[in-house]
Design brief:
32% of the residues lie in helices and 25% in strands. With 148 residues, it is of the alpha/beta class. Strands 3-2-1-4-5 form a 5-stranded mixed sheet. Helix 3 links the parallel strand 4 and strand 5. The radius of gyration is 18 Å and the shape is globular. The N terminus is likely disordered.
Length: 148
């Protein structure tokens, strides 16, 4: 017997698993790199997801908004050579995002001994949820004209 693989079946399956996050605050830790990001999502100390994705802010926004509909999203990532573009793009679509100094993020011994991108992203999300992180100043983006 041939297995049915229609879009209707997939949609029906997805409809059964949709959770309404309206009114819930989810904390998202992002360990950013040039080509990919590790994204961990936490709600009330429960890790809802921790996955790697390509370094694409549009795809991240789509993922967060479709996976967690109605949720108040609060993102965090450590400052790095990749700048503040991600913070600006998330904020522009109404997703709260802070950038922190990596040296200000406390690390316990277990996290230090098994340092991976997954551990780092989850650590950021959990520290943000417990209000342990302090944002750094995001400089205003200015346009520079040639010759000035």
């Amino acid at each position: 017997m041939k297995q049915q693989t229609s879009a209707a079946t997939e949609t029906r399956f997805k409809d059964k698993n949709i959770i309404d996050f309206t009114g819930k605050t989810l904390y998202v830790g992002i360990d950013i790199h040039q080509k990919d990001w590790q994204v961990a999502t936490v709600h009330e100390e429960l890790c809802l997801g921790n996955h790697r994705m390509s370094a694409n802010s549009r795809k991240l926004i789509e993922h967060l908004q479709s996976r967690y509909p109605g949720a108040l999203l609060k993102c965090v990532y450590e400052s790095s050579a990749w700048g503040f573009t991600l913070q600006r793009q998330l904020t522009a679509v109404g997703i709260d995002c802070i950038v922190v100094n990596a040296a200000d993020v406390s690390t316990n011994d277990k996290e230090r001994k098994r340092k991976t991108d997954k551990v780092d992203a989850l650590k950021l999300a959990r520290r943000h949820a417990s209000h342990e992180l302090r944002a750094i100043h995001i400089p205003v983006k200015t346009l520079r004209k040639k010759g000035i």
